[in-house]
Write a structure and sequence with these properties.
Strands 1-2-5-4-3-6 form a six-stranded antiparallel β-barrel. The chain is globular, with a radius of gyration of 17 Å. The chain contains three helices and twelve strands, in the order βββββαββββββαβα. The protein is mainly beta. The protein has two domains: 85 residues, Elongation Factor Tu (Ef-tu), domain 3; 94 residues, Elongation Factor Tu (Ef-tu), domain 3. β4 and β5 form a beta hairpin.
Length: 208
């Protein structure tokens, strides 16, 4: 589990094809290398979970200032922002002693959304993202959502026939310490809906 509070940034520097494994028997996945700069890796061990722009990945190799993880073909079909050269948001998995500064984040990306608007307004940034309306019922005004691994609050939601748009205010601190500094209109971003909303939807299916 994660909190959606980004603690580091890394840059994807390489992809290597990986052979079939238990979770990706047909192969086609990629082992990605991320250069982590001055992010503290002293407490990161092989087998640890690290969120990469919202996608939970297991560390399989560690070097000076670098981490390697295997990404399955399934994850690659959903997750965006892991190509060579991409700046990724990094967060270590939380412990029971950590403060929950954001909200409960699983690192299981639900979909990639499209950035419709991304503009500076006074000291903050206005972000509007569009997703399919199959996820729209999980997105609520003043509720929590995760974009590229960042815990954010939804300001407005609008449903159309097949799409849902939602708007977010990004404060200067978040802009400075995440990969939002390289975001552009038209980009795709990783979206994870709120965990509580996910379970509420499942339970209500049996109450109808």
């Amino acid at each position: 589990m994660f909190t959606g509070i980004i603690t580091g940034l890394g840059r994807v520097t390489a992809h290597e094809p990986i052979q079939g494994t238990a979770y990706d028997p047909k192969g086609g996945g990629q082992r990605i290398t991320v250069a982590c700069g001055d992010w503290d890796l002293s407490d990161v061990a092989i087998g640890d979970s690290i969120a990469h722009s919202g996608c939970c990945l297991t560390i399989v190799e560690k070097g000076p200032g670098t981490l390697k993880s295997d990404v399955s073909t399934h994850s690659l079909s959903i997750v965006t922002g892991l190509s060579v050269g991409s700046l990724v948001n990094l967060e270590k998995s939380m412990t029971l002693a950590d403060k929950l500064g954001g909200h409960l984040v699983t690192g299981h990306v639900d979909t990639s959304g499209v950035v419709l608007q991304w503009k500076n307004i006074a000291e903050s940034w206005f972000l509007e993202v569009e997703v399919t309306n199959t996820l729209g019922r999980f997105i609520a005004k003043k509720g929590s959502i995760t974009i590229n691994g960042v815990s954010l609050t939804v300001n407005e939601v609008a449903d159309a026939s097949d799409k849902t748009r939602f708007q977010i205010n990004v404060i200067p601190h978040t802009y400075q310490v995440t990969n939002f500094s390289e975001l552009r209109e038209g980009d795709r971003v990783n979206v994870e809906i709120d965990t509580i909303a996910r379970y509420v939807e499942r339970m209500t299916q049996y109450a109808r």
